[in-house]
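[SOLVED] Need 3D model of a two-part complex

Original post:
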Amino acid sequence: MEYLIVMVPALPLVTAIISYLFASALDRQVAHVSVAAVTLSLLASLGLLWLSLSDAPNNAISFGENWGILIFDPLSSLMSVVISGISLIVHVYSIRYMADEDGYGRYYVLLGLMTSSLLLMVAAGDLLILLTAWHLIGVLLYLLLVQNTADKPTQRYAMWTMITYRLGDLPLVLAAAVLFDAYGTWSLMELFDRIEASPDVPTFGGFAAVELAGVLIAYSAFARSAQFLLHNWLPYTMSGPTPVSALMHAGIVNAGGFLVNRFAPLFMHTHDVLHLLFIVGLFTAVIGSILMLSQNDIKKALGYSTMGQMGFMIMECGVGAFSLAMFHMIAHGLFKGTMFLGAGGVIGKARESDGVPKHELYTFVVERQVTYRRQPWLMMAAITLVIPLLILVAAHWLVAQDYFQKQGAIVLLFFGWVTGAQLIFASYKMQTTNPWRLFTLIVASFAIVVLGYAMISHAFDLFLYPDPQSRDLLYEAAGIDLVWFDLFVALVTAIIVLGWLLTYYAGRSRIGIHIKKAVWMNFYALISREFYVMDFYSGFARRMFTLARRLNTWLRWM
Amino acid sequence: MDLTWWIAALFLPLFPFSAVFVVLVRKMSNTWLKGLVFLLWPQPGVWLVINNAGIIPQWLLYWAIGTAILYAFRALVLRELFQWLSFIAASAWSILWIVYSGNNAPDLMLFALGFSLPMALMVLIGGDLEKRFSTVYAGLYGGISESHPRLSAMFVFTLLAVIATPLFPGFFTMMSSIMAQMLVTPVIALGLLLVWLFWSWSGILMLQGLVMGPFDEATSRKPDLGALRTAWYSLSLVAVGVFGLSFAVVF
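Solution:
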């Protein structure tokens, strides 16, 4: 097993070094060498996952006295398979996609180094290795994004990515400092054991070390997973190579979710940090989705979609559903990677012919033609509200009966219910010859998705957090006062119902049409400028540069 | 504060004493001599500080972090490589006061070398650039990543070492300093983070200005680095990396 643990990150690293040293001799063969290395790395990862599924005990190997530790546990083995799998797809896809690009060899060297750093990050068993890998990923991503070295916008946005990543790297250093000072070890396993033994060790300012470190780790995760106010790099880095975008959206951006899961034994003992994750995640999910809907560039829309999904992932961590976040992260990585790798082909084909058959869905979604046939509203309202709820409750009851005693589970059920209801609600206006067939299909699809989701996430729960006490502690750390919880649910329900009412009556009443139009146009202006976040940062950077120039003028040669 | 500290402030530069080093670098034209200055300049300061064996007063640490921030911030808008490097050096070496106060006194000479080695290497690579293009000014010419792959690769790796990227010694020096200060004087720890951020930012700007950009016909006519020189630089970088890894043992 020890060999496998080392092989997984070492293979792409060694191959990258060989490719760099023998670049001219290997020439185009560099791609095949890299693919072979990542394939072997994937096989080694699968071996580790198989061992993990066979209940092999957690293991660790160490190169130094108290650093250089690589660990084997369910989280690292699962993530290794995901990363090496996605990386292999990206490697293979790039063979032809990048064939005409300059710096073909350099690209594969960097891709190998990136894969190795990601695998090192998930296998890191001590804070030093984790910090090293975490920093390296940012640097390598920058170098991969500027593959087209001649393009100015590419350089500009790659630099934004690098700066944001640095903003996220530095709090992790502080978190490591706090944890080392409080618990006196670099080893993650030892650290978690000591935290469990005495979770209330105080640190700077009288705060509990876990609380302060938790906030700093959360902030690092926010920067890496493009949470609101630290998100701008993500949708703007689309001018990098498409396979890099795929790797970034399918793998690198998920690092935030991984980090939170890696430190789950710490978050179990925090009081307010998970609430912060919930709020930031929720806000990001909403903002990301709004911005996604307002884009007319497919890649940028995908970028904002990733932002929304990352928000949802962080929000899941915020309600204590850590393993669900991992499942979400992997599922999102797979579908988003596929979409990115397919985006170029779709755009190419669409330029020749849109190829979209003009059927009911097309006229509804694209041409926005709505039906004028009405169904009995009481029955439709009942179907909209009751059926999704029944499906959700049944699915969760099937996997665990005590689910409903956890606030986090109720929040997620609530979201699922709203999504299901929204889906059915939106389909009322769709033109169709057989509405009942349509509703049956929608409900059946919804049921399959919910059942699948509930069962797979439950399996993830048992695999990643086999100890029921750990799961309970996470939900407990995410819990809030019952009165506040009820108020929150009531408020969100009111907002959603209000939204439905507004949608339902939209276009039927001419009262206040000018005000509605003005509000809508202002809102549209706001989202078209992406809430002025980028403008603010650009303005801030410009002012900083002006100040630096002035200082240099005043101080001259000093 | 006795005279030793004041002399040490010249070599572990504290503003405005740092001006001596900055001006000296500006006046020097010989690349090898300049490289030697970058390599050895902080060592007399280190020797003085270690042998003085006094406790550094708190206000001096604030002075040191102030100097580090000032030079790192001003480096953001510099475009001439050697001037930029002299500012980064002034910023990095002033941090050695903080390293010393963080109970790392016995290894202070090594920490100073950890900062200096990549800088000296960068001076030599800068000399190679200057020889080919007459000047080392960001934004004046570009596209050498395609026309001069060896030279640009060496430049990128060395720059990463200068801005304290992982595995290189600067990374571990910054980490140990931040960790030592975090709970004692968090303001200094935050200052160190800011310095690190500015180094990365200005380093990337320098990289983009010197290495990237559209392909230039005139630039491409100049020869790339020879195989022997590339091998020499690569081995030096590997040595700096191994030296950096040895710092991990300090933890």
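Edit: Strands of chain A lie at 59-62, 69-72.
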